[in-house]
Amino acid sequence: MDGVTFEVERGEFYGILGPNGAGKTTTLEIVEGLREPDEGTALLLGEPSWPRKPELLRRIGVQLQASAFFEKLTAREQIHTFAALYGVSADRADAMLETVGLTEKKDVRDDKLSGGQAQRLSIACALVHDPELVFLDEPTTGLDPQARRNLWDLLRGINSTGRTVVLTTHYMDEAELLCDRVAIMDAGRILRVGPPADLVRELGVDTLEDVFLQLTGREYRE
Amino acid sequence: MSAFRSLSRAMVLGLLRDRTAVFFMLIFPLMFLALFGALFQDSGVPRSSVVQIGNVAVLDDMPEEQRAALGDALEVTRSGDRARAIEQVSDGDVDAVVWEEDGRVQLRYSAADAARAGTVQGLMQSIVQSANVEATGQEPAFTLTTDRVEDRSVKAIQFLTPGLLGWAVAMGASFMSAFTLVNWRKRRILRRLWLAPIKPSTVISARIGVSLALAFVQVAIFLAIATIPFYGLQLTGSWWLSIPLVACGTLAFMSIGLLIGAWANSDEAANGALQVVIMPMAFLSGSFFPTDEMPGWLNAISTVLPLKHLNEAMMDVLSRGESWGAALPVMGALLLFAAVVTAIAARLFRWDTA
After folding, report:
1. What is the rounded radius of gyration, in angstroms, for the C-alpha atoms of chain A?
2. CB contact under 8 A, B7 and A81
3. ipTM value of the model?
4. Which of A71, A92, A112, A133 to mutate to test the interface with B (most CBs of B within 10 A)?
5. A1-59+132-216 carries CATH number 3.40.50.300
6. Measured between alpha carbons, how far is B344 from B177 in angstroms, rounded to an integer?
7. Distance between CA B190 and CA B111 in Å, rounded?
8. ABC transmembrane type-2 domain spans which residues (chain B) (predicted)?
9. Quick one: DSSP state of residue B46?
């Protein structure tokens, strides 16, 4: 990571794009307060995210790249556990399960959920305490088109209630459709920031994917 | 539900639903106790078995009280077939065959086992002698008065219970803390918990609480089984001191699990490393058999093992009638061990699998 500077407005849907190894996850981890930056600061809702502050963590929701579930617990038990960590009632957790359409799967254990169901559960766990700001790390990777579309609806719904959403993704169609603004990263640097339509226009190409390839090149990544 | 309770619940459910873990932590050590307890039940000197052919006056006319006194040492069965009985002696199935011929008591024994041969000869000799004294009609010139002293040598179950229980506690505590650390790191639950508004101490105390609860369940089941009359463990006065001892032992073994969990990247690596540490420790600490006859250098090694001290202190309070004097220094040492090893584990701690 080298001099990454960006700012996300309240209520914005913000995308961080980049090939594998570009530093997207590391960027998120610094902003979330999982890592201490070597230099500079990350401000989260106006406060430094390092060192760890429980009051601040109460206001953000995080979905990590791999679904972080407790072993051998059912979908309902997972979200109830997370709800308890945030001091949220079990009713609210059940309602969240309903929102992501997993009520029927509530007694299924995490390893028996499909990829899409696990992602939805993971997002439900991130949203259970009604955070102001949500971080999602590649939430649609590995999902089928149906699951992706459903997830998009869910994310749009979250954003439309005034919450700020920051996500990382490989999918340019997804970013183009969902994000108010995107930051394109590679090799630990931010190459370009702006609304998808503006970037397409500025570079004189047809799609965000063309913008992405023009900025990051076509070599294979790790 | 509070964060502490919900995390504890998640850990308990995760453990109970893992059949392999339940088997190895609860059932497997109990199988050893049930099996060893039954196998070594009569580990004292075996009774001498004698086959009596026809009438033998000294045996038949023995006074009732003398017969009762001999009952623990001598078992007499009757048979009519002398040839077959002698064959049984040759085969080692019985110790001796006895019959009476022209007023002489005839005894045939096998010299294959010198100790058993000596015992059965001595017994029969004493029976014949006392019959002789009786026959003279005089008071015996000398009498032997006996009384038993308190039994300092340990019966098998009194040795097996603390030893196997120590081993079970060591396995449960170390495996659970290692697997929690490895799995939570691999599944990124550690990171996820870092991003939840809870204190690290809540997570740690939930983990310790669940491990302690499991250890106490192990103690309760072990003592319940060992004290049934079939196994016959006699608990001594301060047996309840085994509870704080097991608590300190649990912390010490959890620290071993933390160290291995901090080092290992996968369940398999953690499992392998734990087996390599726990099994030899259990053998050297006398969990399965007494270590009195171990060579001196092995004994020297075993004195640094926490399980060795836990086993000895457990035996002291469970079946040797000792109290705080035996338990306190060991509790202190176990806690010190836990603190040192946890500090090393903390230095090796990583958030992510390398």
Report:
1. 17
2. yes
3. 0.90
4. A71
5. yes
6. 15
7. 69
8. 117-352
9. P
